[in-house]
C-alpha cells in the first residue's frame, strides 16, 4: 500500500497543466483618467494595433497569466491636442515609445460565463524606463459570441514611474499625481 501515495504524488508532479491561450483583438482599449486643479481629463488608446496572446495555465494551486501587451504612447488621444502633446512628453514618448503590461498571475482560474467574475492578478507595468509590479482588479466574462472580456483597473501615480506630472501657465494648472489606468481586452480562445 505504500506505493499509492507515491503514485498520487508522481501524478500531481507530472500531470500536464491546464492551459488556455487567448488572442487579443484589435478592438481592445486602454484609458488613463486623471485630474488637474481645475478639471478632469481622460486619455485613451482606442484600439490595439497588433496581435498578442495571453496564456492562462494552472499547475497545482498556482494560476499563471502570461503574455505582454505593448501599447504605443504616440497613440494616446486626450481629445485636446495640447493635453495629448503634454501627456506624450511627460511619458517620454521619444525615449520610451511603448507602455508595456506584462501579465504574471491570477488569484483563481476564471470561469468564462456572461456574468463578470471578480479576480485579482499581478502585472509588471513598464513606463518611461521604470517598471512597477502591481496587483490589478479584473472582471472576466464571456459574451454570446464567445468573446472573452478582461477588464482591469488600477490607480497609479506619475511618481511611481519617476515622472513629474505636467504643469501649465507657470504652474497655475497642475496635474494631480494619481491616475486611474483601465483596460478592456477583448480576446478569443485558441487551443
Explain what you see.
The longest helix is centred in the N-terminal third of the chain and has 12 residues, at 3-14. An 8-stranded antiparallel β-barrel has the order 1-4-5-6-7-8-9-12. A two-stranded antiparallel ribbon has the order 10-11. The protein has a single domain (30-190), classed as Lipocalin (Beta Barrel), CATH 2.40.128. It has 2 helices and 12 strands, in the order H-E-E-E-E-E-H-E-E-E-E-E-E-E. The radius of gyration is 20 Å and the shape is elongated. The chain has helices spanning 3-14, 81-90, and strands spanning 18-24, 29-35, 40-45, 53-59, 62-72, 98-106, 117-127, 130-142, 148-157, 167-168, 173-174, 178-190. Helix content is 12%, strand content 51%. It has 191 residues and is mainly beta. Residues 7-17 have low confidence and may be disordered.
